Amino acid sequence: MATSAVSGVNSISISSTISGFNNFKTKNPNLLLGRRRVLLFNWRIRSFYVSNVASDQKQKTKDSSSDEGFTMDVFQTDSTSVLSSIKYHAEFTPSFSPEKFELPKAYYATAESVRDMLIINWNASYEFYEKMNVKQAYYLSMEFLQGRALLNAIGNLGLNGPYADALTKLGYSLEDVARQEPDAALGNGGLGRLASCFLDSMATLNYPAWGYGLRYRYGLFKQLITKDGQEEVAENWLEMGNPWEIVRNDISYPVKFYGEVIEGTDGRKEWVGGEDITAVAYDVPIPGYKTKTTINLRLWSTKLAAEAFDLRAFNEGDHAKAYEAQKKAEKICYILYPGDESLEGKTLRLKQQYTLCSASLQDIIARFERRSGNTVNWDQFPEKVAVQMNDTHPTLCIPELLRILMDVKGLSWKQAWEITQRTVAYTNHTVLPEALEKWSFTLLGELLPRHVEIIAMIDEELLHTILAEYGTEDLDLLQEKLNQMRILDNVEIPSSVLELLIKSEENTVDADKGEEQKGEEQQLQEEGKDDSKDEKTDAVKAETTNEEDETEVKKVEVEDPQAKIKRIFGPHPNRPQVVHMANLCVVSGHAVNGVAEIHSEIVKKEVFNEFYELWPEKFQNKTNGVTPRRWLSFCNPELSEIITKWTGSDDWLLNTEKLAELRKFADNEELHSEWRKAKRNNKMKVVSLIKEKTGYVVSPDAMFDVQIKRIHEYKRQLLNIFGIVYRYKKMKEMIPEERKEKFVPRVCIFGGKAFATYVQAKRIVKFITDVGATVNHDPEIGDLLKVVFVPDYNVSVAEVLIPGSELSQHISTAGMEASGTSNMKFSMNGCLLIGTLDGANVEIREEVGEDNFFLFGAQAHEIAGLRKERAEGKFVPDPRFEEVKAFVRTGVFGPYNYEELMGSLEGNEGYGRADYFLVGKDFPEYIECQDKVDEAYRDQKKWTKMSILNTAGSSKFSSDRTIHQYARDIWRIEPVELP
């Protein structure tokens, strides 16, 4: 680590080295002691005008302690001025002691310097949106996986050169300073990273949009890899503070839980009593690339008012009681996705979701009212506001918006319902039934009593729609539709619907009686035509009469229509009462979108088929995308320079379709040479990362084969490691010469977190690390095979691994991965993919070319049949698959008992058995496909061409393209470029 080599930098008087700074400080002491200064930044591309928020004066301000006014000199963003700004923050906004200027302090001072410029543009964007009263989109998400902000912000501002030069003069490199920044622990996986990519694109494309989330104190968890596998400890990303956030102490909203609902004399409902907390806003500026637009990510933190602190209990020594309410409030924003195995965990998750929704909706409505001026026309709300729910976590914004409109603003149900439906939209991210959120009706009713009433009203609206669509003649069909579509599952049918069903059944019974009576009359008429009957006929008649008498008895026993309807449609005592959040989203929103073409088709045909048949116009596809700035330009600068050189400009950063021009040079030997050199340099960075994180030393001459994503059975890290075990076993059975001839050297890299309570996923992590411990220390194998699990996978780790990867595995069971975004990042960086026809893999393969994608495995439409075949005992496992399981059971990878893990792949039925994710079915094709990978890698000329064509084919997968589609088709907002 470099130490400061600049004279005076280690001194408390850092600013004395700035030309004219002391004189300025003397004349304006009060101004400099304030954090916000009025500056004019004159940048090469544009000028920034700072607005003093307190006085709302522009360009010029007057020192309150002096009669003399002053205008600050223009502050140029060359390296000298940047250096001055960094030094200023090191002295006047210190987070560290003044004696030293070491790397952590350098990072904070640099970040605060950059933040000054972001605040200028943030203020300008905000004020312009307010002035123009534009329609604004609001993106609600429980996760925003941002990664480090410094290099991204500097890159978007186009100031890499000045900041690099300034820090060099201070004795540090920009890269070393940037590495001091912890990743913001606000997300877990693809859902949160997608949200962050979207924010980048919204700002870059000048769309008026904000993100809303929660400010988690500890985030998910920090992952440690020990001899016991994965261990979780609290993430400490806020331990030293966060220089990017701006706390808005003047922006806070009350959030209520529990209590009761009372009805006033005017019929308006009021939610009273219960537990009250306060949500406080923290803003994080999000800069666009080469634009003035800087949008906002508003994060909510929770607290309790000071007067709620029980001072008497504290003074009496009952400290726990004194802090109880405060802790309840604060813990809402402690952890992302707290374990929900217990009732307390479920309650906390619901509190988190409602806090996000309630605070955000109150904020959005307050902004709408302020912009509306003296006259608020609520019918115009959807013309000014678009709310996007990122998966089902923000679903409670639907009943919350209705509650505010009806109970607080006094709108009728009809008007509020219409406004809500025109305002909100829903993005579905999963087809897994367990991931489609269902909450206990009882728990939701206790925690949010008014919202359950409102959800019941929405459910009633839905039931009337279903009755109108399907009629009441076929009760079996109707029951099937209600079971599939109701929001409130196994909850009493509303009386208005019950009455219709009973009336319909009564009419049916009456009609049946009428028909029966008519038939009897006809029969009597026929009998009257022939009075001469013999004894035999009389006997038959007597017998018939007896049968009719029995029929009359049976008629008396016909079930009462009301009892019949209640029996068919009433709640079952042995089934839980739940609220289907995804159904609530589909019913209440004006748009529902999947995130890849195949996923959207599954959503329409399977997940929400009944709703699609009812409202086909609601359903859309919006294939995910990633920002090319962070995921190619900033994380892979060497390859980016090559792309710019060969495409003729850096226009591809804003128009990724330009990447397709690389196809013209796919066979060019000069490009091949440059391409391979860039990849090699990136691989060396991966070598260093692996040594730093794990202690393993790997060869850069081996193929780098990577699978980095959340650990889950459907993502099939187990298939990958089984393939590695098979490879290792075969190597051990060969002599050294045969090994080298048969196998290409590989470094197999894993990364990802298993949820803390997901036992099977944690077993998989343990298994991977045990295989690595055995293989990596086997002298017979050497550099021919290494297995590495990189701990605590996050955005910053991905930014190193992805540029240095050569093969990336996206091998989920077909039909189970909604889209994926890491596949897009790998392909964009020239990495080849091996995978199934799942999620965005389908579209990536189409774009890069079938010959440049390694495909294997069953397809989505086959999965149900294969599972049925398995359940019927017809599946015959491949001998190679059985060989791997038997090899593991020998204990070659250590004493840990993997019987539960192996057992999950065996049997034909049962929870946790029967190989639900079809690892055994796809295993033979997978290892045969890996042989094709080896063959292709041996021909480096062919491999390099394939790599180039992957980058060229990734043009479709920019988040800019995706955001344009959201803005046009769902939000209906226009870009607003600042003057």
Automatic annotation (TrEMBL):
Q: Which UniProt keywords apply?
A: Carbohydrate metabolism, Glycosyltransferase, Pyridoxal phosphate, Transferase
Please list the reactions this protein catalyses. [(1->4)-alpha-D-glucosyl](n) + phosphate = [(1->4)-alpha-D-glucosyl](n-1) + alpha-D-glucose 1-phosphate
**Where is the region Disordered?**
509-557
Question: Superkingdom of this entry's organism?
Answer: Eukaryota
- The answer to keyword Transmembrane applying to this record is no
Enzyme class name? transferase
UniProt-listed Pfam families = Phosphorylase
Which SUPFAM superfamilies does the record associate with it? Answer: UDP-Glycosyltransferase/glycogen phosphorylase (SSF53756)
Ranges annotated as biased composition (Basic and acidic residues): 509-541
Q: Which InterPro entries match?
A: Glycg_phsphrylas (IPR011833), Glyco_trans_35 (IPR000811), Pyridoxal_P_attach_site (IPR035090)
Q: What is its EC number?
A: 2.4.1.1
Known cofactor(s): pyridoxal 5'-phosphate
The reply on keyword Glycosyltransferase is yes
- PANTHER family named among the record's database cross-references: ALPHA-1,4 GLUCAN PHOSPHORYLASE L-2 ISOZYME, CHLOROPLASTIC_AMYLOPLASTIC, GLYCOGEN PHOSPHORYLASE
Q: What does this protein do?
A: Allosteric enzyme that catalyzes the rate-limiting step in glycogen catabolism, the phosphorolytic cleavage of glycogen to produce glucose-1-phosphate, and plays a central role in maintaining cellular and organismal glucose homeostasis.
Tell me which family the UniProt entry assigns to this protein.
Belongs to the glycogen phosphorylase family.
What is the designated name of this protein?
Alpha-1,4 glucan phosphorylase
